[in-house]
Write a structure and sequence with these properties.
By secondary structure, the chain is an alpha/beta fold. It is built from four helices and eight strands. It has one domain (26-154): Sandwich (Immunoglobulin-like), CATH 2.60.40.420. It has helices at residues 5-21, 125-130, 137-147, 151-154, and strands spanning 28-37, 40-45, 48-51, 56-60, 69-70, 90-93, 98-103, 113-118. A hairpin with a 2-residue loop joins strand 1 (28-37) and strand 2 (40-45). The radius of gyration is 21 Å and the shape is globular. The relative contact order is 0.16.
Length: 157
């Protein structure tokens, strides 16, 4: 039996359907919680990440005395925050586009903060930029938000 054009189209359609049904592979990014890193003392490394919806971030307690938790006011609408235990690894899935700010609770005022930009950054960049931070965290967060593409947040206040 000789293949016909109709059979070739049918086979191509089946292959396209199978390819579309194959789930995309999400990436797991890792962030270290450090007493000392390239940017100084009490830092997340890297402190800024750009990820895609569906990716996960695993916060690693590389040094003791740290946690990772979301900062109120720095989450896209409708998303839940996260809070890891002290000296505990936590993996967070990021499904919604937007800017997510996070901190180490004991070292927040020392500037131990980070930013994750999911997708194009969504619609909460301005709200994230208006969130107040204590001590050194204010300066560090402004620089990270600038890195995420929000130049207004990077201006001195």
């Amino acid at each position: 039996m000789r293949p016909t054009f109709a059979m070739a189209v049918a086979v191509a359609g089946v292959l396209a359907t199978l390819a579309a049904a194959t789930p995309a592979t999400a990436t797991d990014h890792q962030v270290k919680m450090l007493n000392r890193g390239a940017a100084g003392m009490m830092v997340f490394e890297p402190a800024y990440l750009a990820v895609q919806p569906g990716d996960t971030v695993t916060f690693l307690p590389t040094d003791k005395g740290h946690n990772a938790e979301a900062i109120a006011g720095m989450l896209p609408d409708g998303t839940d925050g996260f809070k890891g235990g002290m000296n505990k690894e936590i993996t967070v899935a990021f499904e919604t586009q937007g800017i997510y700010g996070y901190k180490c609770a004991p070292h927040y005022a020392m500037g131990m903060v980070g930013v994750i930009k999911v997708g194009d950054g969504g619609t909460n960049a301005d709200a994230a930029a208006k969130t107040r931070h204590p001590g050194k965290a204010k300066k560090v967060m402004a620089a990270l938000l600038g890195e995420a593409g929000n130049p207004v947040a990077a201006l001195p206040k």
